[in-house]
Each structure stands twice: as structure tokens, then as C-alpha cells.
């Protein structure tokens, strides 16, 4: 795309006119959005990063250890920080169009207060920087949902994964009580399978299968779709295999 800026200088008797020409490259003109991904070095986070780059988004990956994310791309920026440090969070959030969170607990068997404190920092930073859109990856295993699903979600997960579920419930509540334009994505057990595009989404989906699972690739694809769709703004979307 060609931009021409005409500047006219009037010095009283002499008038000079200059034309400045800037030719925007094809790569620059195709960049759609600047997004920040928390949990970018995790299994789902890496899927988010790769798929976002394929869409030509300008991606900032928030990581504690850059060595854990070996993806290289001209539109990828690694931001080393800790979500408990508000200054590093606000530094990463400023200038973004949207935020995606694929943060996961260090252990599924312990309540991770770091993630709760970190989410408080993320929400505070987004409000300060006027970045309103957030897509948060959660689980279908919460108390409000579990009776809509099969035996594993109803009976096994509340015992085996009670601390991880409690963490997600705490963070969901914080997000819902904020003024952000959120979409909470409640996914089933995640696998490392390939992207199939065979999944369904809705606020009140149910499944009585013993256990349900979905690939991280399909989950990431759905999360990125929310950046250009408004169906689930300030809503919770359940995600299940088709």
C-alpha cells in the first residue's frame, strides 16, 4: 500500500512543498492484530503461538524461561517475565489488541496461588492499558458444569483434580467480575492430537460419555477464532468433540 504525505512550509515569501512516500510491504499490510499469549511455552500455548503466526498476527509470548519456546518467527516477540510481577505484566500488556491465557498449574494436585495472583495482575494491567479482550482457557470440570457430563467429570475429576479445578473456578470468577470483554473457554481433557476441526461449541453443551477429550490444536483454533467473532463475548463457551 502506498502512502503519500504532502507537507507545505510557508516561510513568508518562499513556499516549499515536500512529498514523503512510504511503501508498506505486503507482509506489513497483512498483519491483522497484536496479541499477547500467557502460558505460551506450554503445550496448548505453543499451539496458540504457531496458529496465530500462521494467521499473520503479531504475537508476544509471555514466558518465564525463553529456552522453553524455540519457535522463531519475524512476528514473534518473546517477553520474559513473571505473572506475579505487575510491572512485567503491564509491560507486556501495553499496546496489545487482545490477550489469550493458556496458563496451567505447576501441578494438577496443588492449588496454584501464583496463577490466581497472576490473573489479578493481568486484569489490572489490561484495565490500565485499555486492552479489553481476553480469551481464557478453563475446564469443563467446575461445580456448575459437572452434572452435565459423564462419570469421569462428575465423580473422578472432583477428587483427583480438585485443586486444579478450584484454581480455574477462582480465576473464572475474577474474570467474570471484571469489566473486560472476556470469553471463557471450558475444554475437556486435552490431548496432543492433530487439528481436525471436528468440534462443537456452545454455552450449554452436555455429554454423558464416560470421558471426553479434544486436541490442543483444535482448542487453540477455537480460542483464536474468538478474536474475530463476538458470539461468546462476556460468555462461557463449552468445547467438545463433534
CATH architecture descriptor text: 3-Layer(aba) Sandwich
Residue share in helix: 25-40%
| Structural class by SSE content | alpha/beta
**In total, how many beta strands?**
12
Q: In CATH terms, what is the fold-level topology?
A: Rossmann fold
Gap between N and C termini, in Å?
42 Å
Shape type: globular
What about the largest sheet? 8 strands, mixed
What's the helix count? Answer: 7
Order of helices and strands: EEHEHEEHEHEHHEEEEHE
Number of domains: 1
- The unreliable regions are 1-29
Q: Which key features would you list for this structure?
A:
242 residues, alpha/beta, Rossmann fold, 7 helices, disordered N terminus
How would you summarize this macromolecular structure in one to three sentences?
31% of the residues lie in helices and 29% in strands. With 242 residues, the protein is an alpha/beta fold.
Protein model, in words:
This protein has 242 residues and is α/β, with parallel strands linked by helices. The protein has one domain: 3-Layer(aba) Sandwich (Rossmann fold). It contains 7 helices and 12 strands. It has helices spanning 26-29, 43-54, 86-93, 113-129, 151-160, 162-176, 216-225; strands at 2-10, 15-23, 34-38, 58-63, 76-80, 98-101, 133-139, 181-187, 189-191, 199-202, 213-215, 235-241. Strands 5-4-3-6-7-8-12-10 form an 8-stranded mixed sheet, with helices on both faces. A two-stranded antiparallel sheet has the order 1-2. The radius of gyration is 21 Å and the shape is globular. The model is unreliable at 1-29 (pLDDT under 50).
Question: SSE layout and pairings?
Answer:
Layout: E1 2-10, E2 15-23, H1 26-29, E3 34-38, H2 43-54, E4 58-63, E5 76-80, H3 86-93, E6 98-101, H4 113-129, E7 133-139, H5 151-160, H6 162-176, E8 181-187, E9 189-191, E10 199-202, E11 213-215, H7 216-225, E12 235-241
Parallel strand pairs: 3-4, 3-6, 4-5, 6-7, 7-8, 8-12, 9-11
Antiparallel strand pairs: 1-2, 10-12
Helix pairs in contact: 2-7, 3-4, 4-6
Amino acid at each position: 500500500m502506498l502512502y503519500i504525505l504532502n507537507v507545505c512550509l510557508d516561510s513568508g515569501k518562499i513556499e516549499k512543498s515536500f512529498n514523503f512516500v512510504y511503501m508498506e510491504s505486503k507482509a506489513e499490510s497483512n498483519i491483522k492484530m497484536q496479541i499477547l499469549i500467557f502460558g505460551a511455552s506450554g503445550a496448548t500455548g505453543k499451539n496458540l503461538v504457531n496458529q496465530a503466526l500462521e494467521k499473520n498476527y503479531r504475537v508476544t509470548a509471555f514466558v518465564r524461561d525463553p529456552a522453553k519456546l524455540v519457535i522463531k518467527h519475524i512476528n514473534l516477540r518473546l517477553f520474559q517475565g513473571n505473572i506475579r510481577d505487575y510491572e512485567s505484566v503491564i509491560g507486556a500488556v501495553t499496546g496489545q489488541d487482545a490477550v489469550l491465557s493458556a496458563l496451567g498449574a505447576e501441578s494438577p494436585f496443588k492449588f496454584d496461588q501464583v496463577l490466581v495472583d497472576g490473573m489479578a495482575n493481568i486484569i489490572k494491567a489490561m484495565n490500565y492499558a485499555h486492552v479489553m479482550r481476553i480469551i481464557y482457557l478453563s475446564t469443563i470440570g467446575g461445580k456448575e458444569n459437572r452434572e452435565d457430563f459423564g462419570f469421569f467429570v462428575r465423580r473422578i475429576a472432583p477428587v483427583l483434580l480438585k485443586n486444579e479445578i478450584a484454581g480455574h473456578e477462582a480465576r473464572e470468577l475474577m474474570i467474570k467480575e471484571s469489566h473486560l470483554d472476556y470469553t471463557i473457554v471450558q475444554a475437556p481433557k486435552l490431548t496432543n492430537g492433530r487439528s481436525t476441526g471436528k468440534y462443537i461449541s456452545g454455552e450449554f453443551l452436555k455429554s454423558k460419555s464416560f470421558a471426553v477429550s479434544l486436541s490442543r490444536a483444535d482448542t487453540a483454533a477455537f480460542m483464536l477464532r474468538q478474536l474475530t467473532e463476538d458470539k461468546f463475548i462476556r460468555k462461557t463457551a463449552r468445547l467438545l468433540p463433534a
